[in-house]
Design goal:
The complex is a heterodimer of chains A (114) and B (111). By secondary structure, chain A is mostly beta strands. Helices cover 0% and strands 51% of the residues of chain A. Chain B has no helices and eleven strands. Classes of the chains: A mainly beta (114), B mainly beta (111).
Chain lengths: 114, 111
């Protein structure tokens, strides 16, 4: 049982490049989300999904796209990378169907945009 | 003004000391209050959660929520070097599982 797996762990992009951050979970959780963590800012919600085919915007969605074609996977796409998107990105999953439950986080992807 | 305020520290204490962490918030709709622990270069892990107001104790850890003051606290008794980490408070609304985080407080426990 791997939990939440994020790939890659590290990435350097040039301004204007696009890329996809991968997130997969094997706990059959319905709820998945993406956060970015910046110094002094805590974690801020980018996008979230309450089930396959359903996504919505969080607090800081600009410059990012998501899709949820399966329960297990929730990729985050950077359309045209900017230095302001340099951050650590965390994917999380939880199962709210049974009431409030713990959110499980991946190990993070450290992204640098130059 | 941020929805959840948390002093980022850093906080350095000797082994065995009591660590006191707190957060304030502005949104009265929050019902679930959580503390996550994050070790360096790792993802956050849930430490404790509390529903609505009250206290909760788990071993050396005590979480307190005062909804009337919009103030939550985490106390760590008999702190150990292994408690050195960043502690993030988080909150969510009862029907909304999106988490709102504080900035995190970095704690170092000196042996």
């Amino acid at each position: 049982n791997a939990g939440v797996t994020q790939t890659p762990k590290f990435q350097v992009l040039k301004t204007g490049q696009s890329m996809t951050l991968q997130c997969a979970q094997d706990m059959n959780h319905e709820y998945m989300s993406w956060y970015r963590q910046d110094p002094g800012m805590g974690l801020r919600l980018i996008h979230y999904s309450v089930g396959a085919g359903i996504t919505d915007q969080g607090e800081v969605p600009n410059g990012y796209n998501v899709s949820r074609s399966t329960t297990e996977d929730f990729p985050l796409r950077l359309l045209s990378a900017a230095p302001s998107q340099t951050s650590v990105y965390f994917c999380a999953s939880s199962d709210p169907i049974q009431g409030w439950t713990e959110a499980f986080f991946g190990q993070g992807t450290r992204l640098t945009v130059v | 003004q941020k929805e959840v305020e948390q002093d980022p520290g850093p906080l350095s204490v000797p082994e065995g000391a009591i660590v006191s962490l707190n957060c304030t918030y502005s949104n009265s709709a929050f019902q679930y209050f959580m503390w996550y622990r994050q070790y360096s270069r790792k993802g956050p892990e849930l430490l404790m959660y509390t529903y609505s107001s009250g206290n909760k104790e788990d071993g050396r850890f005590t979480a307190q929520v005062d909804k009337s003051s919009k103030y939550i606290s985490l106390f760590i008794r008999d702190s150990q070097p292994s408690d050195s980490a960043t502690y993030l408070c988080a909150m969510s609304r009862s029907a909304d599982y999106k988490l709102s985080f504080g900035a995190g407080t970095t704690v170092t426990v000196r042996a």
